[in-house]
Amino acid sequence: MKCHKCGNQLFVNDQYCSQCGERVKSNVSSLESTVIHDESQPQTSKGKSPILALILSALVVGLGQLYAGQGLKGIVLFGVWILATIATAGMATFVIWIINLIDAYRIAKKVNQGKHVDEWEFF
Ligand SMILES: [Zn+2]
């Protein structure tokens, strides 16, 4: 429960805010204002962390994309990475890895912002 005026953390039984002195009306109205306040904020429950996507793709190419909801792209990216590594004797490994990192971060950021991301969308 928070003060509706200054946002100070309040105890359930507080009658007045300890920080700004604002009267805490009642538990019910505080609860309602908390719910309304939460709805105005971006939905984080469906959001994807760009940092986590970055870390996952750093560990395994395509894993960050998989996490961000681009399952097929993530798997194909991983396959391409393996094939390119064999075909170029490891020369393409690092390049694809870096591209994969940037892509995972940017895609997860878009998903996090609630933007529509196509299955095969890059960056
Ligand atoms: Zn206050």
How would you describe this protein?
With 123 residues, the chain is mainly alpha-helical. The chain folds into 2 domains: 1-41, no CATH class; 50-112, no CATH class. 54% of the residues lie in helices and 0% in strands. It has 5 helices and no strands. Helix 2 runs antiparallel to helix 5 and helix 4 runs antiparallel to helix 5 (93-112). The two termini are 40 Å apart. The chain binds zinc ion. The site of zinc ion has 8 residues, from loops. Zinc ion is lined by residues 3, 5-6, 8, 17, 19-20, 22. The chain crosses the membrane at residues 51-69, 75-102. This is TM2 domain-containing membrane protein YozV.
